[in-house]
Design a protein that fits this description.
By secondary structure, this protein is an alpha/beta fold. It is 37% helix and 16% strand.
Length: 168
Amino acid sequence: MRTRGRESDVPAPDSPWNEIVPGLWMGGHEFRSRSGEVRSAVPRGEFDLVQTLIRLPGYGPDDGVEHQVWPVPDGPLDGTQLAGVIRMAQATGEALDAGRTVLVRCYHGYNRSGLVVAHALIRRGHSADEAIRVVRTRRSPWALHNELFVEYLRAGLTTVRMLEELAE
């Protein structure tokens, strides 16, 4: 995996989640508190929809909160995984259009969640580079440090998925 830094150099985020655009939040399962302690980030009732890209037991959300799970690796994605990312981004946009609040999360809330959130922004009219910039500005400079995911976004996920299917 190509990254802007070694994984051991990637710090835990300073907050469990951040609002990227109105109603759309991006986060992870852990964050570093002001005291420096790594803490669990467990959504309760703050969001109408929680999308999880890596599921860890005990990290919620609470009962009654719509929860969509699509596990993907933080590395090369096959056609099925890319299709799931595209579906998650589409569901994000539909929820936002309905006035719902959405949290997209992965382990730290940097790469996998960044891929879905940025793709949702692209579907809503942002260029790939603008979507990447917004995600990094609003979540963390470490967001989308997986350069392969940046390449997917710049190439257009649908195009990447079609190429993957042709190669099979």
